Amino acid sequence: MKPSETTASALQDTFKDVMACVATPVSIVTGLAHNGAPCGATVSAFSSLSVSPPMILVSLDRRSRTLEVIRESGRFGLNVLGADQDDLAMSFASKGGADKFRGTTWSIEHGLPRISRASAWIASTVADFADGGDHVIVLGRVDAAEAAASRAPLVYHRRSFGTHQPYREPARGVPA
């Protein structure tokens, strides 16, 4: 192995460790193929991009079947999972087609698969694609959005699932 390969490999491992320190929302990006078959993939690389106009971005593995469907249809759904939906996150992280939806309660909204009980839902039209190394960044214009105020989100941090807990600083002078 060449020294530069060792260095690149070590940097990748260190980068993964650093990124594990960043808490990220866990979402499932969904699409609908022209034959009506649903597809979906778990992502942790999702972010708001713009408020005016409302836009989001998601990052998908360039070999993803879901990415193929999004390229064909020009649309995608984003299901921000609820704190109790880690089983879905794992299921949709695996390779496989419509089988990922087996046993999952979902419906079609705005022409896209929407997973039941997600803490938030966004329907988007593709605005652009950008190269992102081994991933493709999909920019989406938001067509519809809905939040379930009472459902805590699922987050991924230090290679495990959890949820957000608000930080409350104790009042001054009061023992913690």
UniProtKB/TrEMBL annotation:
<comment type="similarity">
    <text>Belongs to the non-flavoprotein flavin reductase family.</text>
</comment>
<dbReference type="GO" id="GO:0016491">
    <property type="term" value="F:oxidoreductase activity"/>
</dbReference>
<protein>
    <submittedName>
        <fullName>Flavin reductase family protein</fullName>
        <ecNumber>1.-.-.-</ecNumber>
    </submittedName>
</protein>
<dbReference type="InterPro" id="IPR050268">
    <property type="entry name" value="NADH-dep_flavin_reductase"/>
</dbReference>
<feature type="domain" description="Flavin reductase like">
    <location>
        <begin position="19"/>
        <end position="163"/>
    </location>
</feature>
<dbReference type="InterPro" id="IPR012349">
    <property type="entry name" value="Split_barrel_FMN-bd"/>
</dbReference>
<dbReference type="InterPro" id="IPR002563">
    <property type="entry name" value="Flavin_Rdtase-like_dom"/>
</dbReference>
<dbReference type="Pfam" id="PF01613">
    <property type="entry name" value="Flavin_Reduct"/>
</dbReference>
<keyword id="KW-0560">Oxidoreductase</keyword>
